[in-house]
Amino acid sequence: MNNRLGAKPSVMTQPINNLFDLSGKVALVTGASGGIGMAVCKALAEQGTRLALVDINASALESQKKELMSAGASVETYLGHVEKKADCENIAAAVVGAFGTVDILVNLAGINTRMRPELYDDELWSRIIDVNLKGTFNMCQAVFPVMQKSGRGKIVNIGSILALSSNAVTAAYSASKGGVLQLTRSLACAWATDGINVNVLQPGWIDTKLSRQARIDIPGHAERVVNTTPLGRWGEPADLIGPVIFLASPASDFMTGASVVVDGGVLAHV
User: Whose CB among 9, 82, 98, 197 lies 3.0–4.6 Å from 135's, allowing a Cys bridge?
Assistant: First the structure.
């Protein structure tokens, strides 16, 4: 049976050792200097990916660039706020100017806070929605033209298990990540005929600087996470490396609009 016009060939036409080959691909990663971002960028570099790192922390980006380049990676860094459409458009144009294309987009930029819903003011609510949801859309939209032109692309959005369940103190974050899930599905449907795969990872409790603050803010939270996670531990940033590489590689060519949970079994546990 013939593929539809513009569809990618089946991975079965490729040697098995090429399924995860990212050599020479260009990956644009937002929130690159965060805990998960650093782990993902190192893994992408080890796979031979050329990296465009985006964050708002100039000193962290520069330090990360030096570390990656010392290991032989090809890296450029870009300062920008993903909630600003113009920043995303300018970054995408600069990456194309430096590398010629964008093959992979990983949307990691995000923020969170913890408070009861009646305590949010308009500014804080809008800030979380704008960075997490609008920022993800802005960056996807910014890279679409170059991916459409090349006839292929991999977009990996980062959601959260709080898109699928929630609690009393994460109303804005849960709403924003629920939006990322539905955005992913819509983009996947819209851009499938352009050869662009759009999927979302839903991490569980991952040990990062952001989550460590929650342990301070919420008494007993650290112990509760371990007790309610079937695998009996917090996740590490490294636990997301395999899923990101999979969704960025030819191995996932027949996946789009998928929601991939990486939570140690939390959502499976009653």
Answer: 82
Known catalytic residue: 120? no
Can you give the residue ranges of every domain in the chain? 23-262
The fold of the 23-262 domain, in CATH, is Rossmann fold (3.40.50)
Q: Which of 203, 207, 220, 181 is nearest to 264 (CA)?
A: 203
From 78, 137, 173, 205, the catalytic residue: 173
In this structure, of 15-19, 80-84, 135-139, 148-152, the range with the lowest mean pLDDT score is 15-19
